[in-house]
Amino acid sequence: MNKEYIQKELRFKAVRSSGAGGQNVNKVATKVVLNFDVPNSSGLTAEEKALLHEKLTTKISQEGILILSCDEDRSQLKNKGIVTQRFWELLSKSMKRPKVRKATKTPRSAQEKRLQSKKKSSEIKANRKKPNF
């Protein structure tokens, strides 16, 4: 993953934000939409692209474009910073592979402890019966 190439490939678009905010919302385009073309990226290897498609299927469009947006702040610059930070976090999280679980045997002490508790409970239940004379 080459961050310099990826940074150059990011496309930002300012859109009018929805919701409360009075006249500011009606006049100023503060919402920032980030677009990243995953299949045509030169900063990612083929393996990384496949991994992104696998992990981020809900955020990637049919054309293969990753779309993120932010309208948390009234400042376009702050929203751009937030959405860029979110993009890098998302990219780094999706590139991590989970650790492979190694199967282990149960310890002998745990097996013996289990058998002892079973034996003890069976003795308790056996003592409940009427004695056989």
From TrEMBL:
Compositional bias segments (type: Basic residues): 96-105
Biased composition (Basic and acidic residues): 110-126
GO term, biological process aspect, one: rescue of stalled ribosome
Statement: the UniProt record of this protein carries the keyword Hydrolase: yes
Pfam family, one: RF-1
Prokaryotic-type class I peptide chain release factors domain location: 16-32
Top-level lineage group: Bacteria
Keyword field contains Hydrolase: yes
Record's keyword terms, sorted: Hydrolase
InterPro entries assigned to the protein according to its UniProt record, in alphabetical order: Pep_chain_release_fac_I, Pep_chain_release_fac_I_sf
GO MF annotation list: peptidyl-tRNA hydrolase activity; ribosome binding; translation release factor activity
Chain spans, region Disordered: 96-133
Similarity-based family: Belongs to the prokaryotic/mitochondrial release factor family.
Protein name: Aminoacyl-tRNA hydrolase
Native organism: Flavobacterium sediminis
